[in-house]
Write a structure and sequence with these properties.
Elements (H helix, E strand, L loop, with lengths): L1 H26 L3 H13 L2 H28 L6 H14 L6 H14 L3 H29 L1 H10 L4 H24 L3 H9 L1 H7 L1 H4 L3 H23 L10 H16 L7 H11 L5 H33 L4
Helix pairs in contact: 1-15, 2-15, 3-4, 3-12, 4-5, 4-15, 5-6, 6-10, 6-12, 6-13, 12-13, 13-14, 14-15
Length: 321
Amino acid sequence: MKNQLRKWLTLIIPLLIGITIVYYQYTTLTFEEIEKIKVSFQKANYLYVFISLIIAMIGHWSRAYRWKFALNHLGYYPKFYNNFLTVLVSYFVNLTVPRSGEISRAALIKKYEEIPFDKAFGTIVAERIVDLLIFLLFVIIGVVFQFETLHQFLITKTISFQSIILFSIALFILGVVFLLIWIYAEWKIIVKLKKKFEGLIQGMRTVLEMKNKWYYLFHSFFIWFCYLAMFYVAVFALQETSVISFDIIIMGFIFGSLAIGFSNGGLGAYPVSIALLFSLYGISNDIGTAFGWLVWTSQTVLTIFSGILSFLLLPILNRNK
């Protein structure tokens, strides 16, 4: 009886979460935004949308494959399907609370592969650091090639470019100071924290110490190549955006990534960010917003569907545990 109840809960809970997310996101939209989504869906060429979703799944597969190098270095050899399914679940969970997916991913791999939570989470933190560095590389490239446009935009918003530079330098200095204190300080509180987070730190060091670091880095760049390709292909889904140049696409990709990173899956923020960026290049707000909703909606539906399916498959594929 308990096993049957557990199976039903395993089925019902993720479905309820998915329905709740969809309902919540729908109720946050205004009537005008809903109408724009309808128009974009009516005009869209779904072949490009479908290809974009396939590329997204390839990127998720690469993320799961990259993870195995870090876990193998720590002496753990999980089944690849567990890596892949937990990654998909983590994207799904991130739609609720930003960055909560990383915690769920470490918790699930602990449950199904008996990998200590702190070590698994450490490898995920290391991934995020590498991802951040690659994303910053995109930002630098985008700023270099679109400096004048961005500078004019900041002027219109009465934002000083110098203030952004000074703020960035201050953050960098604070980061360096914290890192130096963490490495070299012998304060009691630092020693205690190092001991407490030993497993986490060990997981984070895997990138520097692993034998297959070049394969790891290759997949790190390939993941972001997939994300950029996913965005690039989606541009051709609407006739009005199909003529956008590649440098604008890179900037749109950067703005969209920032919107997703600082919100729960880009809810509301993604279409606004895309529309704002596109408007700098003479693309109407309606077209930019419609394109943003098209990309965001299709990716969110994929995330919810694959996340729920993965959540259901995990206990089935690991039923012997």
